[in-house]
Design goal:
Number of helices: 4
Helix content: 25-40%
Strand order of the largest sheet: 1-5-2-6
Distance between the termini: 42 Å
Strand content: 15-25%
Number of strands: 6
Order of helices and strands: EEHEEEHHEH
Radius of gyration: 14 Å
Mean pLDDT: 82
């Protein structure tokens, strides 16, 4: 039946665009400040089946756009839905005042 092809898992309902296709015990996700890099990374993983981005093994990508760090609960809630033993968060953003501010806040909420 339907249960043979549908494998439900808790989904984060945080108004975040994310592509995290599978759960792993050790997760590495990339938070992207901007939509275009997020779309490109998601397409590389989803459409092309890539497992490495910039030479790093990556299990998922999240579009942050600053909203992810404006609420100190969004990233921890997202990580909690992954049910991983540990999760490493990488950041891809602009090297400008806003991008560095997001990186700083991300460091605070990712601890």
């Amino acid at each position: 039946g339907l249960s043979d092809i549908v494998n439900p898992r808790p989904q984060v309902k945080l108004e975040l665009l994310h592509h995290i296709p599978r759960q792993h015990r050790h997760m590495r996700i990339v938070v992207s400040e901007n939509l275009d890099p997020w779309v490109n990374m998601r397409n590389a993983m989803y459409l092309e089946g890539r497992k490495r981005i910039f030479g790093e093994r990556v299990h998922g990508v999240v579009f942050g756009n600053g909203y992810l760090v404006d609420d100190p609960h969004k990233l921890p809630d997202l990580v909690a839905t992954l049910s991983a033993q540990d999760t490493t968060v990488l950041y891809w953003g602009d090297i400008d005042r806003a991008g560095l501010s997001i990186l700083d806040k991300l460091g605070e909420v990712a601890v």
